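hi! just following up on the protien thing from before. the input was this:
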Amino acid sequence: MKPRAGVGLTSIMVVLTVTTGMIEAVSFLVLGPVFTAVQTGNLLFLSFALTGAAGLSPAASGVSFAGFVVGAVLGSRFESGVDAHGRRWFGPALIVEAVLLGLGGLVAWRTGLDTPGALADGPHHVVIALVAVAMGMRNITTLRARVPDLPTTVSTRALTALLGGLAPHPDTRIGSGPADEGRRLASVGAMFAGGLLGAWLLVRVEVHPALVLLIPATLVLALGAGSWVLPRGRAPEPSESG
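and the predicted 3d structure came back as:
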């Protein structure tokens, strides 16, 4: 059963975008450099690393890509199966994602993974795998939710549409209006804010990476539990925009 469209679902997607920025701060600054949600960047890292480029780990990028694939496949099967029985899949999917993120944080804590820029080794790869599986599932979840301009793990398209909509003669084919521009601005701003917060906690405050991972895990868990108790109702499919 599809989550009800509206301000509530849009707000959830904005918060999820913030968590992506925080997660990628840990991925890039502590686990990698590697991305676990933004697989476009990760695939480029993998291609660069395979040429022997300094400072990049083909193993870390490969583990991230493999974990993402597993998460996307399992997430699709899980959510489709729940939906086929007429049950709500959005909340449970977020809860499963939160558990995976929490496990990643727990492994980071128990293995003493707390040094930004350290050479990636076994514990790094375990955390990368868990977080990448969670992000693979996240992408399926947000793809199925279909909130325009808020995929939660990338902002390039939202930024492009935002700039196109603000042009003196906006392209009507990409959609333009206060609601469209507001979502796009929220998408870009949330990603930046999440990355800024995550990096600030890691670099300036020197918070343990495990705790920086557990913050998104807690937020996602709260969002999943909250969406599960929202009133039932199958919402109309939102139109594609941007």
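The CA atoms of residues 7 and 15 lie 12 Å apart.
DSSP finds eight helices and no strands in the chain.
cheers
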